[in-house]
Amino acid sequence: MSSINVLSNWDIHEKKTPMRISDRFKKHWQALLIGLTIGALCSGIALAAVTTLLVQVQQQAQLPQVLRARQQAQLQQVLRQQALRQQARLQPVLQLQPQQQQHLYNGVLNNGPTYESSTYSGIGACLWLNQSANQSMTVSSPPFLNMTYTSFTFEILSTNTWYHIAFIYDYPTGTQFIYINGDLDISRSGAGPYMGTSGDLTIGTGYISMPNNYFDGCLDSIAYYPWAKNATEIMSDASFVCYLKFDGNNLIDSGPLSISGTGMNYSYTSSGRVNQALTLSTLSSYVQITGLTRIGINDWPYTVSIWIYPTSTSGGTIMHLSSRLDGAQSSGWCLPIMGLTSSGAIAINSWNRTNIPINGPFVPLFAWTHVAATYSHNNGQRLYVNGSQYGTSSLPYTFNAGGVPMTITLGSSLLGINVCNTGTIQMGQFYGSLDEFQIYARELSSSEIYVLATP
C-alpha cells in the first residue's frame, strides 16, 4: 500500500515528519495531491492539504488552562454532533463542483485555468490546472468552516488516472487518516486540535516549497464535512458509483456521484420490490446511465445489483455495457453483462478476449428475484441469485474493458443486438419491472450481497 507525505506543522514544536512518500506516487506524480490551502476560514483555519497536507500537533500538556477548558467544551459538542449523525446523514458543509465555484463562492481563477468535460462521473466539468502556468483558484470568504477544536473530513478526486483521496482528522481521538480509493493508506495518532486564522480557500496550490507546488491535472468533486467520517463512509464515497431507486417517478441517483439516468418509453409502478419500480413494457423501452469511468478500466473490480420482475422469459437484456449510447460496437465496445437465456434462465457475462458466461436458475414470471454479479481479478466473475452464490468462473482472469467511460443500458441492447458478443444471453427487449439498481467500483462480499437481497 502506498503512502502520502504529511508534513506535521500543526505544532511548531513538532519537527519530524512521521509519514513517507511511496515509490509508486513518486513515479506517477511530482505532486500527487493538490496544494489545497485554507489560509483560515472565518474563525481560524490555515490548512494546506493535498499536494502536501499541512497539519499541526499541539500536546495537551502545553495548552494554557483556558484553552483546555475550551477544548473540553468543544469535545462535548463533537460528541453531541456524532450522536445526531446516527439519526440522520448530514450533507457536506462545503461541496465544490468546479465549474460553479466562481458563481457560488465568488471564486477567482488565477493564471487562466480551464474547465474540461472529462470528469470522473461524466457529468458537469472538472477544474483543469496547468502546473507550468502556476494556475489555481481562490475562493474569497467561503462558507463558515469552523475547524478549530473539531473533527473534519476533506475529500477530493485527483487525476492522472482518477484517484479518490480523503483526509480525516478525528478530534476526540487526535488521529489523522489518509484514504486512497477507499482504503486506509496511513494514519497518525497524537495530533492535537487544529488552530488557525481567517483567510481564503485556495485550490491548486499551497505555500510550501513555493513556487514549485502547483498541481498539474484535473480536480473533481471536492467536499468538506464537519465531522470525521468512518472507514465505511469513505469506502462508500470512493466506490459506490450509482443507485437508482426508481422512487418518486424519477431517475435520480441516490449515490454519491449524482449520475442520474435517462431513457425512453418507460413508466413506473407502485408495486416495486422497495416502494416504486421501473416498468419496461414496450419494444425499445430502456433506461441509461453514462459516465461510468472505472468499469471502463481493464481489470477494475465491480459489482452490479438489481431486482427483476419479468413478465416474459423468452430472453431479454437486463444490463448492456457499451462505449456508445446506441449500444453498438462499430468503432466502440459493447457487451451484455446480465440478461435471460432463450429458455428463461438468468445469465451474466464478462470478457477476456472471449465471452465468460455463467448461467443461473430459471427465474419465475411475475415475481421479484434479486440478481447480482461481481468481478475481481483473483475471484473472477460470480453470480448471486436471491443472496446466494449460484456460480463462478473457474479461474482468475483479466476483464478486458472498453478503455473509456462506459454506459449501462437497462432493459435493452439497442443497436447492439446481433452485433455485440453475447455469451448465453438472448439479447433483446426485457419485459417487466426493475428495482433498486446499484453499481459499485469494487467486488462486494457475499455478506454485502445478502444484505442487498434482503431489504
Number of domains: 2
Name the average pLDDT. Answer: 77
The residue ranges in which pLDDT falls below 50 over 5 or more consecutive positions are 1-64, 78-90, 96-105
Helix content: 10-25%
**Taking Cα atoms only, what radius of gyration do you get, to the nearest Å?**
24 Å
Count of DSSP E strands? 30
Description of the molecule:
- By secondary structure, this protein is mainly beta.
- It has 2 domains: 6-229, Jelly Rolls (Sandwich); 240-453, Sandwich (Jelly Rolls).
- 11% of the residues lie in helices and 36% in strands.
- Strands 5, 7, 8, 10, 11, 12, 13 and 15 form an 8-stranded antiparallel beta sheet that branches.
- Strand 11 and strand 12 (175-180) form a beta hairpin.
- The relative contact order is 0.13.
- Mean pLDDT is 77; it is low at 1-64, 78-90 and 96-105.
